[in-house]
């Protein structure tokens, strides 16, 4: 259906213009405006969804490996894509009070060299240690005497989380 355009001649409206080019341009112009308005409305509705959700940076910890034992050992190699490591460890069952030793050293699996002494503890306890290194393959060297131990290695991965509304 064509929108009728009127020609002005000497200040008054004459007969309707039925020029197909004028009709087509008028329809196209109005249709473009309607489409753009519809897209803008849909975009606003989809973006907000009626609720404004703010995103905040977060860290998600992915388990790389866990080990336990009594005495010293070296773990198998593991790869960290970020280099952000969290070591959660615990010691129990100390043979005689004050005789337990627990050390964990982080090594590069590429060169074998020690990078950082992450844990140096005596006796029964538990803690979490954070290590930041370049991404690469690693292994842990555990030195232990007179106690049982567990250690878990986790890798920090960047993420975003929706901020919770506190009402």
Helix count equals 1
| CATH fold category name of the largest domain | Jelly Rolls
Radius of gyration: 35 Å
- Contiguous low-pLDDT stretches (5 residues minimum) are 1-15, 17-39
Helix-strand makeup class:
alpha+beta
Strand content: over 45%
Top-tier CATH class of the largest domain: Mainly Beta
**Chain-averaged pLDDT:** 79
Largest sheet: 5 strands, antiparallel
Concise synopsis of the structure shown:
The chain is built from one helix and eleven strands.
How is the secondary structure organized here?
Blueprint lengths: L4 E5 L2 E6 L2 H29 L6 E16 L2 E2 L3 E3 L3 E9 L8 E8 L5 E9 L2 E8 L3 E10 L2 E15 L5
Antiparallel strand pairs: 1-2, 3-11, 4-10, 5-10, 6-9, 6-11, 7-8, 7-10
Q: What attributes does this structure have?
A:
167 residues; 2 domains; 5-stranded antiparallel β-sheet; 1 helix; disordered N terminus
Structure explained in plain terms:
The chain is globular, with a radius of gyration of 35 Å. The protein folds into two domains: 5-48; 55-162, Jelly Rolls. It has one helix and eleven strands; from the N terminus they run ββαβββββββββ. It has one helix at 20-48; strands at 5-9, 12-17, 55-70, 73-74, 78-80, 84-92, 101-108, 114-122, 125-132, 136-145, 148-162. It starts with a strand and ends in a 5-residue tail after the last strand. The chain is 17% helix and 54% strand. It is an alpha+beta fold.
């Amino acid at each position: 259906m064509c929108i009728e355009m009127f020609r002005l001649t000497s200040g008054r409206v004459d007969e309707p213009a039925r020029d197909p080019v004028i009709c087509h341009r008028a329809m196209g112009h109005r249709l473009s405006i309607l489409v753009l308005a519809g897209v803008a409305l849909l975009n606003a509705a989809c973006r907000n969804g009626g609720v404004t959700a703010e995103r905040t940076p977060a860290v998600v910890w992915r388990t790389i490996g866990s080990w336990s034992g009594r005495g010293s050992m070296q773990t198998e190699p593991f790869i960290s894509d970020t280099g952000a490591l969290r070591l959660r460890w615990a010691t129990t069952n100390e043979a005689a009070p004050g005789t337990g030793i627990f050390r964990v050293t982080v090594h590069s699996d590429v060169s074998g060299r020690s990078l950082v002494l992450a844990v140096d503890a005596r006796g029964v306890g538990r803690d979490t240690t954070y290590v930041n290194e370049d991404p690469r393959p690693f292994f842990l060297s555990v030195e232990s005497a007179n106690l049982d131990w567990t250690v878990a290695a986790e890798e920090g991965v960047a993420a975003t989380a929706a901020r919770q509304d506190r009402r």
